[in-house]
Design goal:
363 residues, alpha/beta, Rossmann fold, seven-stranded mixed β-sheet, four-stranded parallel β-sheet, elongated, binds 6-O-phosphono-beta-D-fructofuranose
Length: 363
């Protein structure tokens, strides 16, 4: 008797709008076109360590296109090669990768689809090298993954941040204040750059261009002199002054990437208010940028990437990630994607355009 083909899907790292749309696309294509059985792994690699998974029926993945988060759950703490056990002084790390490999074998799937950012894909690449058939889909609101022009989730995060900047704009104008909007993005400035330009930020601060507080103060004062008695600053959580450091919000000891950034807007706010005597307020958008329904652009992208992942499985192109190049969906090696974060080039055309319309980058 012919054996039913089966695949497994997991979503790892920080959650991201559009993840459910990818799960839906992968599972629906696998079920409809190839009659495959689809297994959903719970909470990223955590589920493969603790044998937590379930069969995804057609009905489970129907009606989830527009829903934020991930129906499978996720974790940004479970690297099986350095898995954190215990807490506080008892915290220690163990390599449980062999357990994961054994569990995947027991599952009997022909491929594991990993939806993740650079952390998850770094781990996935190691498993692929150990013989696990894997294909990947690029996920992160930060847009900082190599090998793809864009990741799904980014457009939604930019929309949320832009709406916040628009709302802050009117209150800044009414109160003649400096308003600082702090966005996520880790050590890459994509989110701040795109939402800053879309929201007409007067000053955009990104990690790739360390700032000089004097330039920022000068810009605010110049605007004031021109009769613009308010200013909007869009700052990336990873922005830092020339020769200075990022502001660390939290250290998460049991996470592979331990540093959580946040709070730069408060440091800047104090400095700007003191130097300009203009009242300054700040808004930290935080996890709002990761929540809720994906934009139409992200739904479309997620559907294209998810269906491409199944094409890769059909072509037995394991070790590859579905990726965006221009208007096309193509494939790059997971190895390429996992090489570490992709920063904004300082000569990026959008920076040039923003400078041309008078935006200050703090340099
Ligand atoms: O990578 C996505 C992201 O939202 C970053 O922009 C941010 O720095 C980080 O995750 C926050 O992580 P956590 O959800 O653990 O606070």
């Amino acid at each position: 008797m012919k054996r039913t083909r089966s695949i497994a899907i997991l979503s790892g790292g920080g959650d991201c709008p559009g993840t459910n749309a990818v799960i839906r696309a992968v599972a629906k294509k696998a079920i409809i076109q190839f009659g495959m059985e689809v297994i959903g792994i719970e909470d990223g690699y955590e589920g493969l360590i603790h044998r937590r998974w379930r069969k995804l029926h057609y009905a489970d993945v129907s009606g989830i296109l527009t829903i934020g988060g991930t129906i499978l759950g996720t974790s940004n703490k479970s690297d099986p090669y350095r898995y954190a056990i215990g807490e506080g002084k008892k915290l220690h790390f163990r390599d449980v990768s062999k357990t994961v490999i054994a569990n995947i074998k027991k599952l009997g799937v022909e491929c594991l689809v990993c939806i993740g950012g650079d952390g998850t894909l770094f781990v996935s690449n190691k498993f692929y090298k150990e013989g696990v058939p894997i294909v990947a889909v690029p996920k992160t609101i930060d847009n900082d993954l190599r090998g793809t022009d864009v990741t799904f989730g980014f457009d939604t995060a930019v929309s949320i941040a832009t709406e916040a900047i628009d709302r802050v704009h009117t209150t800044a104008q009414s109160h003649h204040r400096v308003m600082i909007v702090e966005v996520m993005g880790r050590i890459a400035g994509w989110l701040a750059l795109y939402s800053g330009v879309a929201g007409g930020g007067d000053i955009i601060l990104i990690p790739e261009i360390p700032y000089n507080i004097e330039s920022i103060v000068r810009k605010v004062k110049d605007r004031n002199r021109m009769g613009k008695r308010f200013s909007i600053v869009v700052v990336s959580e990873g922005a830092k002054p020339i020769g200075g450091n990022v502001v660390v919000r939290q250290i998460v000891k049991n996470s592979p990437e331990q540093v959580r950034l946040g709070g730069i807007s408060f440091v800047l706010g104090d400095q700007i208010e003191r130097a300009t005597c203009i009242e300054t307020r700040q808004v930290v958008l935080g996890h709002l940028q990761r929540g809720g329904t994906p934009t139409p652009t992200d739904r479309v992208l997620a559907t294209r990437l998810g269906t491409k992942a199944v094409e890769l499985i059909e072509a037995r192109q394991f070790g590859y990630m579905a990726a965006v190049k221009g208007n096309d969906i193509t494939a790059v090696t997971i190895e390429e994607a996992a090489k570490g974060p992709r920063n904004v080039p300082v000569e990026h055309p959008l920076i040039t355009s923003a400078r041309a319309v008078g935006t200050c980058f703090g340099d």
